[in-house]
Specification:
heterodimer; A: alpha/beta; globular; B: alpha/beta; 2 domains
Chain lengths: 356, 180
């Protein structure tokens, strides 16, 4: 078990079919796959950092691959996301697609596309992409990483990729700004917004919080390479530690794993038992301090006023920054949206929450 | 965030791809660089570089990279733009940033992807922790060493404490707690 803690990798998205994968209560890869199967041809995926977007995209790919060619690509492995050139990225996607579904004729044509005049290149490469997709049959294009690009670059590329939706299902991870305010204009009526949110871990309705806690328990156990909940009875002390870390994480999977990893490190340093709750409290303190340090003037006031509300009173640019940085976490309970300050930050700012 | 030297040791020995160290001035930067060399696991090479792109090199993925960039803002932006290229790393690339400097502001305001990676992976020996936390750490130090941090440092300076790897680690901790 010790070894499981030391090998936690909160930064690493899970690959397709990874044994560490746990089924989310909502916003899962299964739901995403179902939405595509239900006929949504253009899906824009949004969510804060560390919530599991890439992991769920990989899960959706696995499910979709039973009935179509599900092609998934992470752009940020190849490109500097601050300097995206739409044409260059589009050609890269096409090249990778053709590597997965080879077509010598199209590959030759692709070389010509890169040399075509700028005004002609866009239509030329789009037609090539269509040919490649049609040759592959039923296709789902699942493109990750666009959320890290500048808004304008992301928008230009999203428009080009969504334009392929006559021939393929297209799901893109896009910037948060596409989901709120004027930025949402790119999402016309035919683009489905798919939000991957933090899971509920406290508050009402109690069933949601219970489902969230069970998901995070299972996720933590799987990442620690321990038997899943149903197959064995895990150590109650360990479960209590995971539950406390889940609450402190605000339901963000990466934060949960970071807290467990850091608690283990504190245990090593202080030579205490790794199950000592004090280690977790110190990890949470560090996490909260790091978040507090990233605040700008007046942020603390805005956050305290937004706590427990729907977030609409926070100015849009500030709200986007809060959501993106994980200062503010947005939950949906039925039709209602509620925002809470990240629990570790709330403690650092002495903002009262139900959890504290 | 953590100011404990032991945490720097676990950062350098961990498998996270990136970490950040905040320094106050060039003198403290040099001192932390030296400390990193001492605390990194023996089986890992430690290299100092001014080119943040070295963090993406396959041949350096098992090396602790101490990234002391001339342009810290650009270093943050480079890692933000290509964060996922760091996933291959097995040893951390440790980014040195000036405390409250321009790069820290960019990290906090314009680099959400990188800063999300860095939670729990920051070392700041001179951070402005709350008074309550400092008191708690001082009490804990006294319990472990049977002296206050100031008393311990005094004893160290008088040569009353044996010069071992462990006591060298304690010097930094006592120093941070005494000054805080």
């Amino acid at each position: 078990m010790e070894d499981g803690f030391s090998k936690l990798s909160p930064h690493r998205p899970l690959r397709q079919g990874a044994p560490e994968y746990a089924q989310r209560p909502e916003g899962s890869g299964g739901e995403l796959a179902n939405e595509l199967r239900a006929g949504w041809k253009r899906i824009a995926i949004v969510g804060p950092m560390g919530v599991g977007k890439s992991t769920e995209l990989a899960a959706a790919q696995q499910l979709l691959s039973h009935d179509r060619f599900a092609f998934r690509l992470g752009l940020d492995l190849t490109f500097d996301m601050r300097r995206l050139q739409t044409g260059e990225v589009f050609v890269h996607i096409l090249r990778r697609f053709l590597a997965a579904r080879p077509s010598p004729a199209l590959e030759m044509a692709l070389g010509a596309a890169e040399q075509a005049a700028v005004s002609e290149a866009r239509d030329f490469r789009r037609d090539l992409a269509r040919k490649a997709i049609r040759a592959a049959g039923d296709v789902a294009l699942l493109i990750d990483g666009l959320e890290k690009a500048e808004d304008n670059a992301a928008r230009a590329l999203a428009e080009e990729l969504f334009a392929l939706s006559d021939d393929a299902d297209v799901a893109l991870v896009v910037p948060m700004s596409f989901a709120y305010g004027p930025g949402a204009a790119i999402l016309g009526e035919d683009v489905r917004l798919f939000q991957v949110r933090p899971v509920a871990v406290w508050g009402e309705p109690a069933e949601d919080a219970e489902r969230g806690r069970l998901f995070l328990r299972e996720l933590a156990l799987r990442h620690l390479h321990l038997p899943p909940l149903e197959s064995d009875a895990p150590d109650p002390q360990l479960l209590a530690l995971i539950d406390r870390a889940s609450t402190l994480s605000g339901g963000v999977p990466r934060v949960l794993l970071q807290l467990l990893r850091d608690a283990h490190r504190h245990a090593i340093v202080s030579k205490r038992s790794w199950l000592d709750p004090e280690n977790l409290e110190r990890a949470a303190y560090d996490h909260g301090e790091q978040l507090r340090r990233s605040l700008l003037p007046k942020d603390a006031l805005e956050l305290s006023m937004a706590e427990g509300q729907d977030g609409s009173e926070v100015p849009l640019d500030r709200k986007l920054r809060f959501l993106l940085q994980g200062h503010l976490l947005e939950y949906r309970h039925g039709a209602q949206v509620v925002v809470h300050v990240a629990p570790t930050l709330a403690r650092a700012l002495e903002i009262r929450q139900e959890t504290s | 965030m953590s100011a404990l030297t032991g945490n720097l040791m676990t950062l350098l020995g961990g498998n996270d791809p990136v970490a950040v160290v905040f320094y106050r001035d060039d003198r403290s930067k040099e001192s932390i660089l030296e400390l990193c060399g001492l605390l990194a696991p023996r089986e890992r090479a430690v290299i100092e570089t001014d080119d943040v792109c070295d963090a993406f090199l396959q041949e350096l993925k098992d090396t602790v990279l101490l990234v002391v960039a001339h342009d810290e803002v650009d270093a943050v932006r480079t890692l933000e733009g290509q964060r996922d290229r760091l996933l291959e790393r097995d040893a951390p690339a440790v980014l040195f940033l000036m405390q409250s400097g321009a790069a820290e502001k960019v990290l906090n305001q314009e680099a959400p992807a990188l800063s999300s990676f860095l939670r729990g992976l920051a070392y700041d020996p001179e951070s402005s922790a709350s008074e309550g936390e400092i008191t708690r750490r001082r009490d804990e130090f006294q319990l472990r060493h049977l002296r206050t941090p100031s008393e311990w440092l005094g004893a160290w300076q008088r040569g009353e404490i044996e010069d071992t790897a462990g006591s060298n680690l304690t010097v930094q901790e006592a120093w941070a707690l005494r000054r805080a």
